[in-house]
Specification:
675 residues, 19 strands, Glutaredoxin, single chain, alpha+beta, Glycosyltransferase, 5-stranded mixed β-sheet
Length: 675
C-alpha cells in the first residue's frame, strides 16, 4: 500500500528551509498575497516564523512544535501561518527582527512574530518549546494568550502595534546626521582595545563571533598609524581562532561562532559568508605581514569551499548544517578509540595528544579537535598524512544537510575573496574560480530587464536583489578587475553601482535603503548601517562608491561619497565600533585617494614585475589600473587618454588625489616611488 504524505503550500517552493517544513501538519503558507488575503477574510492573526535551513534551534522548534499535531491543530484553527527563509528574504527578516529586538530586547532564530493581517506585529519572540519551563513559556501558552487578546482586546492590539512601530522607527531604525568626528578611527581603535580579550583574542565575552570586518579595520588602522598594538590584536585573534575548534581541523573551513571564550566549542554550522570574509582577512593579514601561516589558513578555507560548497556551474552554496542524524556536531567529533583504531597506537596517541582528544572529551563525551594549547610547529608531514586518513573515514559518516541555494550577495563576497587571494598568492586557479562565479551570476541572476536577482536554485532565479546583493557583487567585480585588468569587470561594476544608486539611494537625505524602489513595499523601509555578522549594505556600497570614484577619477562621485557619511555621522560618532567597515571606508576617503596607473602591454615583463611589486607591498587604500590596448579602458576612464607609454616602454603613473608624479619607466624608480 502506498502511503501518501500530506504536504502544505510550501511544497512548491525552492527554498530548502521552506521545503524542510513542507510536510509539517501546520498549514504553512509562503509569504505572499494569498496568506494575507485569507487572514483578512477570516479575521485571523498571522503567525510568522522566520529561520534558515541550517539553524539548529529552528530544527529543535520544528521537532517539538511544528511536527506536533496538537500545536498544528491550534495554529490551523486560530492563525494563518507563514514561513519565511531569512536568507532568501533578508528584507522581511531585517524588518521583523527590528520589532523583535524592540519587543524583547534581543533577537535570534527561529524568530516568532504574531501580527495583524496588514503585517503589523504585536508579539515577538524567538524559540519556544512546546511546554514551558521556568521563565520560558511554551508555544501553546503563548498562542492561547494571543487568541484571548485577539478576541477580547482588539483595541489594545491596535495601540500596541502603533507603539511598537514608533519605537522601532525611533530607537532602532533612526539615524542622526552630522559631521564625522575627525578622530573617529582612533576612537574606534580604542573601543576595540577596551573590549579585546588578551588571553584568546577576539572582542567581548562569549559567544564569540569572528567579525572579520573588525579585523580588517584594525589591520588598516595599523597601516595608516603604524600602531603595532592594532596588528598584534589582529594576529593573536587570527591564530587563536584557527587553533580553536571553531576551525574544522579535519575537513577545513570555519563554523559560525564559538560558544566559549577559547574558540573551542562552535555552533557547528558553516556559512559561506563567514568563510568568504574570513579567507579575505587571512589574505590581507598575509599581505600585511608575509606570515605564511595566514596564507596556509586561507588556502585551507578555499580547499573546503571548492570541495564542498561549489556548484558545477560556478556558483557557491550557502551553508552546511550544525546537525547530522538530528544531533548537533555529531559529524565532527571523535573519541580516542576511533582515532587509534584508524592510525594505530603510536600514531593515534600522538595525534590525540596534539589535537586534545581524551577519554573524558570536551563536548558531550566526545572530542572537538583543537590546537588551543599547542605549538603549530608540531604539525608535521606525518600529522598531515594522518589527518587525510581521518578525513576519508569521516566522509563515510552521514553528512550534515547542505543548503545548495546560491545567493548573489554571499557569492559576491566569495568572488572578492578569491580574486584578492589570486593576485596576492599568484594563484590563477582562485582567479578563474572568481571569474566562473561572476559569469554564472551574469548568465543566471539577471531578469529580462537587467535587474539583479537575489537567489538561484534548481534552474530558477528569484527575488529582486537587495542592497546587499548589489553592493557585495560590485565589490567582487572591483576585486576581479584588479586581479585581471579585464575592462569588462570594471565596466559591469560601474554600471551596477549606477543601478544601485538609482534603485536604493535616498536622494533627499542620503544613505541606501535595504530594498529597491521597485520592490514589494513592506511596513518599513530601513537603511541598515550596523556592521554585525557581515558589513552592512551601506558600508560596502559607500566603500564601493569611494573606490569607483578613485578609479574613474570622478570628482562628483567623490563628493557624493563624502555626503553619505554625514547622513549617519552622529549615529556613528556615538557607537563607532558598531560601524567598523563604514569607518574603514572613511579611512580610505580621509587618507587621500591613491592610484597606480600602469600603461603598456599587460604581458610585458616589466609590467608583470611592477604588478608583482605592488602585490608584495601592503597598500590597502590604493587602486590599480592598467591601460592596455587590448581592453580599451579609456572608454570607461576618459582621463586615461592622456596617459601614454613613454618611448613604447611600460610606464607607471603614481597619483594621489588626481595629481600624478613624474611617470617612471624602470623598476627601481617604481619601487622607490611606491615606498
Amino acid at each position: 500500500m502506498i502511503v501518501k504524505i500530506k504536504s502544505n503550500k510550501l511544497i512548491n517552493e525552492k527554498s530548502p528551509y521552506l521545503l524542510q517544513h513542507a510536510h509539517n501538519p501546520v498549514d504553512w503558507f509562503p509569504w505572499g498575497d494569498e496568506a494575507f488575503e485569507k487572514s483578512t477574510k477570516e479575521d485571523k492573526p498571522i503567525f510568522l516564523s522566520i529561520g534558515y535551513s541550517t539553524c539548529h534551534w529552528c530544527h529543535v522548534m520544528e521537532r517539538e512544535s511544528f511536527e506536533d499535531e496538537e500545536v498544528a491543530e491550534f495554529l490551523n484553527s486560530n492563525f494563518i501561518s507563514i514561513k519565511v527563509d531569512r536568507e532568501e528574504r533578508p528584507d522581511i527578516d531585517s524588518i521583523y527582527m527590528s520589532f523583535c529586538q524592540a519587543y524583547t530586547g534581543r533577537g535570534g532564530w527561529p524568530m516568532t512574530i504574531i501580527m495583524t493581517p496588514d503585517k503589523k506585529p504585536f508579539f515577538a519572540g524567538t524559540y519556544f518549546p512546546k511546554q514551558g519551563s521556568g521563565n520560558m513559556p511554551g508555544i501553546l501558552e503563548v498562542l492561547s494568550s494571543v487568541v484571548s487578546t485577539w478576541q477580547a482586546e482588539r483595541e489594545n492590539i491596535s495601540s500596541m502595534t502603533e507603539r511598537l512601530e514608533r519605537d522601532v522607527k525611533k530607537y532602532i531604525l533612526s539615524h542622526e546626521s552630522g559631521a564625522m568626528n575627525s578622530h573617529i578611527a582612533e576612537k574606534t581603535f580604542l573601543k576595540f582595545k577596551m573590549r579585546y580579550q588578551e588571553d584568546y583574542g577576539g572582542f567581548g565575552r562569549e559567544p564569540k563571533f569572528p567579525t572579520p570586518h573588525n579585523l580588517l579595520f584594525l589591520l588598516r588602522y595599523y597601516y595608516t598609524t603604524k600602531k603595532k598594538e592594532a596588528l598584534e590584536m589582529v594576529e593573536h585573534t587570527l591564530v587563536s581562532m584557527y587553533k580553536g575548534g571553531i576551525f574544522d581541523h579535519i575537513g577545513f573551513g570555519f563554523s559560525r561562532y564559538s560558544t566559549d571564550k577559547y574558540w573551542l566549542v562552535p555552533h557547528f554550522e558553516k556559512m559561506l559568508y563567514d568563510n568568504a570574509m574570513l579567507s579575505y582577512v587571512y589574505v590581507e593579514a598575509y599581505r600585511a605581514t608575509r606570515n605564511e601561516l595566514y596564507k596556509n589558513i586561507a588556502e585551507k578555507i578555499y580547499t573546503y569551499i571548492f570541495r564542498d560548497m561549489t556548484d558545477s556551474l560556478g556558483g557557491f552554496y550557502s551553508a552546511e548544517d550544525a546537525d547530522s542524524e538530528g544531533v548537533e556536531g555529531k559529524f565532527y567529533v571523535w573519541s580516542p578509540e576511533e582515532i587509534i583504531s584508524l592510525l594505530g597506537k603510536e600514531a593515534g596517541e600522538k595525534f590525540c595528544t596534539l589535537f586534545d582528544v581524551t577519554s573524558k572529551g570536551n563536548f558531550e563525551g566526545k572530542n572537538i579537535l583543537n590546537l588551543i594549547s599547542k605549538n603549530l610547529e608540531d604539525i608535521d608531514d606525518e600529522i598531515e598524512k594522518n589527518r587525510e586518513i581521518l578525513f576519508e573515514e569521516r566522509e563515510k559518516r552521514i553528512h550534515p544537510y547542505k543548503d545548495d541555494k546560491i545567493l548573489t550577495s554571499w557569492n559576491g563576497l566569495m568572488i572578492a575573496s578569491l580574486a584578492y587571494a589570486g593576485r596576492i598568492f599568484e594563484n590563477n586557479d582562485y582567479i578563474d574560480a572568481a571569474k566562473k562565479c561572476a559569469k554564472f551570476i551574469k548568465n543566471n541572476l539577471f531578469n529580462k530587464n537587467g535587474r539583479l536577482l537575489g537567489r538561484f536554485r534548481e534552474c530558477e532565479a528569484a527575488n529582486l536583489g537587495l542592497l546587499d546583493d548589489y553592493a557585495y557583487y560590485v565589490w567582487g567585480l572591483i576585486e576581479l578587475y584588479e586581479s585581471t585588468f579585464q575592462a569588462e569587470y570594471l565596466k559591469e561594476a560601474v554600471k551596477l553601482n549606477k543601478d544601485m544608486m538609482s534603485l536604493f539611494l535616498d536622494k533627499e537625505h542620503g544613505g541606501f535603503y535595504l530594498y529597491g524602489e521597485d520592490a514589494e513595499e513592506l511596513i518599513l523601509r530601513p537603511k541598515e548601517i550596523y556592521d554585525g555578522a557581515l558589513p552592512s549594505g551601506n558600508s560596502i556600497a559607500i566603500f564601493n562608491m569611494a573606490k569607483i570614484a578613485n578609479i574613474l577619477e570622478d570628482y562628483d562621485m567623490t563628493e557624493d561619497t563624502r555626503r553619505q557619511f554625514s547622513t549617519f555621522g552622529e549615529t556613528i560618532n556615538k557607537n563607532s565600533s558598531f560601524y567598523s567597515h563604514l569607518i574603514d571606508a572613511w579611512q580610505y576617503v580621509s587618507n587621500s585617494y591613491k592610484n597606480l596607473i600602469l600603461v603598456g602591454k599587460k604581458d610585458d615583463i616589466l609590467m608583470l614585475q611592477m604588478l608583482k611589486e605592488i602585490n608584495s607591498v601592503y597598500l590597502p587604500y590604493t587602486q590599480v589600473v592598467v591601460k592596455d590596448e587590448e581592453y580599451r579602458i579609456e572608454d570607461i576612464i576618459p582621463s586615461l587618454k592622456d596617459k601614454e607609454a613613454l618611448n613604447n616602454n611600460v610606464t607607471a603613473y603614481i597619483c594621489e588625489n588626481y595629481t600624478c608624479k613624474e611617470p617612471v619607466i624602470d623598476l627601481q624608480s617604481f619601487k622607490k616611488n611606491l615606498e
